[in-house]
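Today's session is about reading a structure prediction critically. Students often jump straight to the picture, but the first step is always the sequence itself: look for stretches that repeat, for charged clusters, for runs of hydrophobic residues. Only then move on to the predicted structure, which in these notes is written as discrete structure tokens rather than atom positions. Here is the chain we will use throughout the hour.
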Amino acid sequence: MKTLVAAVLIAGTSPLAAQDSPGSTPVVFRRFGDYVVKIQVVENGSGAKATVGSGFFVTGAGHVVTNYHVISKLVQDPDRYHAELIDAKGNARAIRALGVDVVHDLAVVRSDSPSPRHFTLREVTPEQGARLYSLGHPSDLGLSIVEGTYNGELQHTLYPKIHFTGSINPGMSGGPTLTDEGAVVGINVSTAGDELSFLVPVERAQALLATVTAPSYRPPPSFLDVVARQIIAYQNVYLAGMFAAGTKTVQLGRYHVPTQPAPFFRCWADAERKPDLTYETIEHRCSTDDYLYIAGEQESGIVTVSHELLTSRQLNTLRFYALYSSVFARDETPSGEREHVTKWKCRASTIDAGSGPLRTVLCVRAYRKLSGLYDAVLKTAPLGRNDGAIVSTLTLAGVTYDNIGAISRRFVERISWR
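Below is the predicted structure for this chain, in token form.
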């Protein structure tokens, strides 16, 4: 104990003073906590909160940055919901949406009350490992602060996203992550747990704020058309050239099939070879890391490629064909809410794929509120083999009908066998 006291005296400070040094977590919380608000979307009929998230003031006029997914119910159904912010003193203020960026999961809302205490957004590039502080309202438990570290931008994404090592939890979405000096580095957007969290770079919020504060800007009467246009522009970029000539292929048995059509795809493979089975399977699957949240279970920007190879030396032709047919007939269509998507409609055909006949089934459903967007699932199966076969599946979420046709054709053209 005497040693500890002596060490404190030599340092010329106390344990409490050391914890409250400039740049420490308590100081950051005291300095910037009242810049951050809780945002809640309320169902009009019941008066109950449907969504709770976070946001932060970025102008003295009352502009607030948050995530699109925090206010998505308001965007999707403005007659059913209203939104409000709860400030640091517990006061509720009505807010209205001014602009959205669904691709980067951002929104700017505004209350009619000014806010003299606010962040000024500017581009910030911390060093790898720099200490950052995330603020927000986790699980509606009150304003909280989380320490973490900056680990740069993710490498396998179509658009930049920051890797933040810290425990961002549900409800903190839309809150700021900042340096000890109060410079906003990014906006809390998602987490994979185990302190694996992600931020939208601050420059994307800067761009959206500049748009909605321009003198000539007027918010649209409905944001649904804006969301649809943004998604279409996004998928035109990430689908451009996908499965074109030069796309990587992988050999599974006698089949060559497409894999990792872009750097922002991740692929996995595994095999099942059990002694009690009369056949073997090899599965190969690739999927985009990125996706766009739209509403509920509805997401866009997802492309998935999967291949399942079946081989057998024990099954006769009829039994192998029955196995092959059952695998091909499995329902691979994603679920969805009737409020947002129509029922699936499927069409089967047999085409000449160059290497031989190819059985295909294409299933499509439309988005009810976002005109011109569809989900699609294409399944293919080469015909004419009785000792080995492959089922390939392509899933597209939130794309135009023209892109469904173009991508499906290029996908089929990349499948060959001998």
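Discussion point for the tutorial: The chain has a mean pLDDT of 91.
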